[in-house]
Sequence to fold (252 residues):
Amino acid sequence: MNAPLLTLSGITQSFPSGTQALRPVDLSIAEGSFVSLVGPSGCGKSTLLRIASGLLTPTSGRVARAFESKPGGVAFVFQDSTLMPWATVARNVSLPLELAGVAAPEAVVRATDALRRVGLAEFADAYPRQLSGGMRMRVSIARAIVTNPRLLLMDEPFAALDEFTRFKLNEDLLQLWQANRWTVMFVTHSVREAVFLSERVVVMSPRPGAVVADLTIHLPAPRTDAMRLGHAFADECARLTHILGQAMGVAA
Fold:
């Protein structure tokens, strides 16, 4: 087990409306790991991700990152691709580098490489409106990885896509992770997606959210499309479904 890259200690979150989103959460994420968060809607998964990123300050508790807090250290991929419609694909991808003050020639090289890694090098001069939903999400991922982040946070990035595209992007994301070993926290409502992608799955309770289970996924690497048809995959999905059902107070 690698040393923790991210440690969340006693994290709580309450909003001015009076909503308590999180009761004390303790979670440690090892460097180079792929961890998914699952739980019922509104349980605080996205809130926890924003706290991990530094976009949101917790009401109480401590966030410790084992790396210097500087631009590019943390990257966030949202459910919506959030691309600038007036900018080319290449310009969208290079935006984090521009904001970090990277010189234009270097930014072009790095953006081109990021697009190559997500299979969109030939679309550098296209605009978001010319791309499919899956392609736009690939651009969003390229924009996140262009800084070579230590921590990659992904908030249901494939939820709006059809199943075939989602499966393909799952496989591509795993290949990128295996090649680069970023530390990934991935929020999803899909049991099958969580099992396929993850080394660990953290199950959260209904709001106010807390960690109620932390599962190691017992599947070999590399994960393949054929694995989804096997008994081992089905057993892991059934195990997670049962625990998730218990967390939601539903017989499973």
